[in-house]
Amino acid sequence: MKFKWIEIKNFRNFKEIKVDLTNQNVIFGLNDIGKSNFLAALRFLFEREIRKNGFIESDFYIRDVDEEISITICIDIKDFDVSDHSKLIVSRMAGARSSEDLENIYIRLNGVYEKNEEIGGITVYWGNSLEKLKEIPQKNGFTELDRIFKVVYIDPLINLERVFEKNKRAIFNQEKFNAKDIEKSEKIKEFTKEINKSIGEMDVINNFEGEITREYQSLKHENIRLTIKSEMAINGYFSDLKPYIKREDDDNLYPTSGDGRKKIISYSLLNYVTKNFNSEKITIFLIEEPENSLHRSLQIALSKKLFSNEAYKYFFLTTHSPELLYEMDNASLIRIHSMDKIVCSSSYVYVVGDDYRNIKTQLNKNLVTALFSERVLLIEGPSERVLFEKVLGTVKPEYELNGAYILEVYGIAFKKYWDVLRELGINVFVKTDNDLKRKKNTNNIFDLIGFNRALELCGKRKMPPINITFNESDTKDLKSAKIVQEKRRLFQKLKTSKRIINSNNIYISTIDLEHDLHAALGARLEELTGNSNPIKYLQSAKLINMAELAKELTYEDCKHLYDHPKFAVLKELNKHEGE
């Protein structure tokens, strides 16, 4: 079973959206943009306690109660032969499933506002044809869906004591007692009777009972007596169980204090309950901003749990935390954002390809912070990052607060990042070198990897390799000079390709970053580096020497670079914010 897509119409701040899903879904965006409302739509669809109350006027988009609410989800059951969950759904559908489409199941909830009752009545349908859905009978809000799905909603302020109380009966179910437990249980009951009897015989208790009874009867003439009993006598000996912490080599009990610790214990408890007591149902976790009160290291640990623990097979997570996404794979990224005052969303099913499997965590660490930005500049490596952060930090010190972000891709993953970010509606910019790469087993044939990288991002055909003529007497430096000369010639020649590339916010250096710097600053670069050949100097120890250069750049230097055509991408990055 796999969640395929969801469509929400006329619900709260959603006029109409349709987004792709998978079984692990991450919803993100600015505050007050609709993430909680997205989870609320799922709760109405799958959670009886929410559904039975119906819709109120404010649940309808801009309170337009003349338009009905519609929430539809599509579930892929192609794995029917091997999936118990797919089989469970089909077994409960009875006659609602026809032979038209055996690979998909559709569940739809409609809400129609009844003005006389001032409430939105809810009807739920399902089937395998969107045009022929059948109504699911309800009784007190209970439907066949509630025999299939169990929703575990975890709010940001998850309460350990409440989680423990809610699941205590299932955890300590007496039907699971073995013979030894049964024997001990009988003894505890006898002890409890004796303890409660002794408590009831205490003078302080008896005196209080007499006094309070007389006070009551003075107000209301009724032949009753108020009595005090231990809760253990009424609710059983499990009623007072509370979770504590016990350290190794220490017999003392410590309270489960600290919001972070309580949250981790709560998640551990939910993992246990899901694995041991919810196996007969499909458990869907709706998790809202779990990073609250969690240290960064615990957020990373929770990320591993969410994306690898079988208990969290199906979840919808809202978050502002990059650390929670470090371990994601096969996840649907859902970015909710506002465009022209119409709330909409973008989604992208993110899969770490086999090419990046061995660097998954590093790939994700680089990507996830960019997901929370409006505009992202992709660069090749740390030298560009050091320089551009210096320039933007000096000329536009609030560039990150205004939604811009610089993401280095180490020259290997431009396309991966480009696809994800653009699919999610994030403006992407690229600055890359005009690289040439010698073809394997040749001496003078080169691929235009810089231009071809850019053309690939634009969806255009790559250019063929070129031939650079070298003489046998050419030294290494002369060969390098010929390659630089060829790069310069190509940059001047490929005007049409450059126009296409620039129109997609992609900017290619004439040669590379160091040559661009020299072209922009001229003799000033020699002065700053204290070297008559600043290009070679910067290329010799790229990051170290670039970091030293960045320290020396004045505001005037940074402003000059920001305004220079060689670094036009920096100004374009900020123009999209309205500069």
Automatic annotation (TrEMBL):
GO molecular function (one): ATP binding
Domain Endonuclease GajA/Old nuclease/RecF-like AAA, residue spans: 1-118
Keywords per UniProt: Endonuclease, Hydrolase, Nuclease
Superkingdom in the source lineage: Bacteria
Residues in OLD protein-like TOPRIM domain copies: 371-435
Pfam families assigned: AAA_15, OLD-like_TOPRIM
Statement: the UniProt record of this protein carries the keyword Translocase: no
Family annotation (InterPro entries): AAA_GajA/Old/RecF-like, Bact_Antivir_Def_Nuclease, P-loop_NTPase, TOPRIM_OLD
Protein name: ATP-dependent endonuclease
Annotated source species: Bhargavaea cecembensis
